[in-house]
Write a structure and sequence with these properties.
seven-stranded mixed sheet, 19 strands, globular, alpha/beta
Length: about 550
């Protein structure tokens, strides 16, 4: 089995692409379907567009206001986005769409589903966030799944810039970074005449800028999970979060639930669907039996062999049996995302879309996302100055994703000890995240560092603040801490080292030294986590 995919150029119908000599590209190959990871050197072409976006309000940098995603006076003004769509002749009405919301898993589910549709031969538009290295990653178009080219992005931006300027003026400067980028994505999908678009909601659902898709254009809504992230922005409770995300359900259009959900939360979602006369298909239905059978390695990286067995009998009559599916996306949470995407594909098939079992398997097996349980190759570790080290990158930043990360490490390396390198945004539940990591495995050392969030340090949590929180977490779970002193001393062997280190590279190298000094005969893993932005920093150092 081949895990990664190889680069090909030339999917845009807008105009011919130029090949940039300055671009550095890492190639991967998998079963003839493609993906690439580009450096951000080609963003020099996008300088005008990026500067335009930087002049707009960017909540990824500043943080989301209280109540912004709720159906209240504090919520984002969806009317503003609707007016912008009208000025652009409603591009979102020119393609069918699957709209995906959820606390966790929506980006992975969107990518799984997009690849399933591409494997069947459809031209697919996919819109997700955030990105790792270049903003182009948020938009992919066509049958290959590559990030949109800089040329195509610039072409559409220039085509609609005058309308955007007028809209910003008429909305008194209130159009946001995400609203304009969403508008550009929808214009690209309309220009390319995609067969279907897979759209990931940004925040919540009801008041999100992507929620301008009307029922006539919606093939299905998907809600993956409900958790406590963005609690303040979405009303302060799990119930209010569920109500906000249920805002993507449209009249008469099917809803696919990922889950599993708490019973009363699922009832909120099903209640909204019932009120909208929307049939419901659940990926967590008792008739669905999916398991991870084991792990293997290819190209220095693990993959998991899974059976996916779906038998749906409530509201839909759908079934599929896929044995020995090799997923490059690791963990039980990614298996659940794959099942959710498979259920969505079956739902589309029920509406007349041609999607074979073979395409579902191919799409699932070719899906790979950087920074989601990503084990670096030994060659990549050597490039970081850490020959022989096992390095895991994961953008986990919530209690739930920390649990998923710990479970994945246990699945892949049951006996390994950990060194953890962490940087986080300020609006996360740092203590709950830390305790979940500490409860999962024996952690030899914790390095607290800092990275910019969304290109700025406004939302960055200081390393000193993180240090205090992790020391508190250690004490609350009964772990002895070594805050300073000689960690090589014999009496410090059973203590977890907690250090502040502003340099990410030094953190990783010292973490490797500690693992080797303490556990010479046992394997150890350097885990870099806390946000996708710290993952981006590591990948950026690999790519130039």
């Amino acid at each position: 089995m081949t895990i990664f995919m190889v680069l090909k150029c030339g999917i845009s119908n807008l105009h011919a692409r130029k090949i940039l000599a300055s671009a550095t590209i890492v190639h991967f190959k998998n079963k003839g379907l493609e993906r690439c990871i580009s450096t951000n050197s080609d963003d020099l072409q996008l300088k005008e567009f990026l500067e335009y976006l930087d002049n707009l309000k960017n909540y990824e940098k500043s943080g989301v206001p209280k109540g912004a995603g709720t159906e209240s006076a504090d919520g984002f003004d969806l009317g503003r986005m609707k007016r912008l769509m009208q000025r652009l002749d409603n591009p979102q009405s020119k393609f069918k769409a699957v709209h995906i919301a959820g606390t966790k898993g929506k980006g992975s589910t969107a990518t799984f589903l997009s690849n399933i549709l591409r494997a069947e031969g459809y031209s697919v538009g996919c819109y997700t966030s955030p990105h790792i290295r270049t903003i182009r990653e948020r938009i992919s178009i066509g049958r290959l799944g590559e990030p949109v080219s800089a040329e195509s992005l610039i072409f559409v931006f220039h085509k609609i810039k005058e309308i955007l300027d007028q809209a910003i003026e008429q909305e008194h400067g209130c159009l946001s970074h995400f609203e304009v980028l969403t508008a550009v994505a929808f214009m690209l999908f309309a220009e390319e005449n995609v067969d279907i678009a897979v759209i990931e909601a940004g925040l919540g659902g009801a008041r999100d800028a992507t929620n301008v898709i009307c029922s006539s254009g919606l093939a299905a809504s998907v809600i993956t999970t409900i958790g406590e992230e963005h609690l303040s922005a979405l009303g302060g409770s799990l119930e209010s979060i569920a109500r906000a995300k249920s805002g993507i359900i449209k009249h008469g259009r099917p809803l696919v639930l990922g889950g599993p959900f708490l019973p009363h939360i699922e009832q909120i979602l099903r209640g909204k669907a019932f009120s909208m006369f929307s049939p419901v298909l659940s990926a967590s239905d008792p008739g669905n039996r999916s398991i991870i059978k084991g792990l293997s390695r290819f190209n220095d990286k693990p993959c998991q062999s899974c059976d996916i067995l779906i038998q749906v009998e409530r509201e839909f009559q759908l079934s599929i049996e896929l044995f020995d599916v090799n997923l490059c996306m690791l963990g039980t949470h990614q298996l659940q995302n794959a099942v959710t995407a498979t259920c969505t594909a079956l739902c589309l098939g029920n509406q007349g879309w041609r999607i074979s079992d073979r395409s579902i398997r191919a799409g699932l097996e070719c899906t790979y996302l950087p920074g989601r349980s990503q084990f670096l190759t030994y060659k990549e570790a050597e490039a970081l100055g850490l020959p022989g080290a096992t390095i895991l990158l994961d953008g986990a930043h919530t209690k739930e994703s920390a649990k998923a990360l710990s479970d994945t490490v246990t699945l892949a390396f049951p006996e390994a000890r950990l060194t953890v390198v962490v940087a986080m945004a300020s609006d996360k539940d740092h203590l709950a995240f830390a305790k979940e990591i500490l409860l999962g495995r024996k952690v030899e050392a914790i390095f607290l560092t800092e990275v910019n969030i969304g290109g700025d340090n406004i939302r960055t949590t200081s390393a000193l603040t993180l240090r205090n929180i992790w020391i508190q977490a250690c004490r609350e779970v009964g772990i002895n801490v070594l805050e300073e002193g000689n960690w090589e001393a014999e009496e410090s062997e059973d203590k977890t080292i907690v250090l502040v280190e502003k340099s990410l590279q030094i953190s990783m190298r010292q973490g490797c030294q500690i693992l080797r000094a303490r556990r010479r005969t046992q394997s150890g893993i350097i885990v870099v986590t806390g946000s996708l932005h710290i993952v981006s920093s590591v990948l950026g150092s690999l790519q130039g």
